[in-house]
Amino acid sequence: MVNYPIIDLHEDIAYHLMGSGRLEEEFQDFDVDVPDRQSDIPKLIRGNVKVVFSAVFPIHDTYNPMIGERISSGYGTRSIKSYTPAASKLIGLEMIKIYLILAKRFGNRLRIIENYSDIEQVMNSDLIGLLISLEGADVLDDIYDLLLLHRLGVRALGITWNFDNRYGASCFTRKDYGLTADGEELVKLANELGIIIDLSHASRNTMIDVLNTSKKPVVISHANVQGVHKHLRNIDDEVLELLVRNHGVIGVTMIPSTIGPRPNTDSLVRHVLYIRERFGPDIIAIGTDFLGIEKTPRGLN
Amino acid sequence: MGRTSWESRKPPEDLTNIGEIAKFLNKLAEYGMSDSDIRKIAFENALRVLRNNLS
Questions:
Q1: Distance from CA of A235 to the nearest CA of B (A)
Q2: Quick check: A132 and A107 in contact, CB under 8 A?
Q3: Is the pLDDT of residue A193 over 50?
Q4: Which residues on chain A are in Cβ contact (under 8 Å) with B32?
């Protein structure tokens, strides 16, 4: 039985805790091993997880069938459900606060990661590190908001979620303008501050531009590969080649539609083997996206 | 995040929560992956990126 420490490059803990309040009667705290919940403290302990990139998803649900249908078609289905980056700064701050509250409430187990000595401490103890990771730069009105967010504990920064923004084009873009001039400055500032750039959800050109700009290794925190399964969120070989040169990593992910028609661990292993055969084992990591993956009700599958 | 109803209906059928992540590592071993490669995937590669950015 293989049981190594795990670094999970993407979990949507704050999104889960913020949204689950709507189901108050079923809501249980994060230290409870809730059946059917994709992650909580007991499960992180059981999984031997040492560091979790803890996402701040600063996007709000909304009704906008035009956008909903366009994005859903990219995933091969049809839905009017949609999202908006409006109010992303406030939502982002609330989500950061959730992580600070978790670390305070469960201080005997959770630790906010601010520097590498924190990483060393969690790797050598029973603590679990939460590395606060912004999923898209929509929160930033200008690049210097990153100074503020760094002070609040943010240590990873996605350029986009599925919306284009002033820093870069997203994987759902209709005109792939890549990384903008502001985006380039943002990457440089993140490199200076010690904030890891995350290319998940970015467009192909944005990824290529960042990989040619960043002086530090990046993460593609939660994605699989085009060579095994075509999907807008998956990564092609040219980008993987640049990732090798950057010494970054791609976190293979549990998002079913990115894995393939039969989303199980055997299918996921195909993505890992593909990357290893062509690009070697040094760029492969894990980014589950647990708590960000919706479930169908039991019995409806 | 794959939280949209269109993107994701459920996690992989045989790996439904983070407590079971060792199943994935064991599956890599079943497919002949070396211990050293599995360690890299589990944490060593990510640790390298963390060290190079946060130090």
A1: 15
A2: no
A3: yes
A4: none
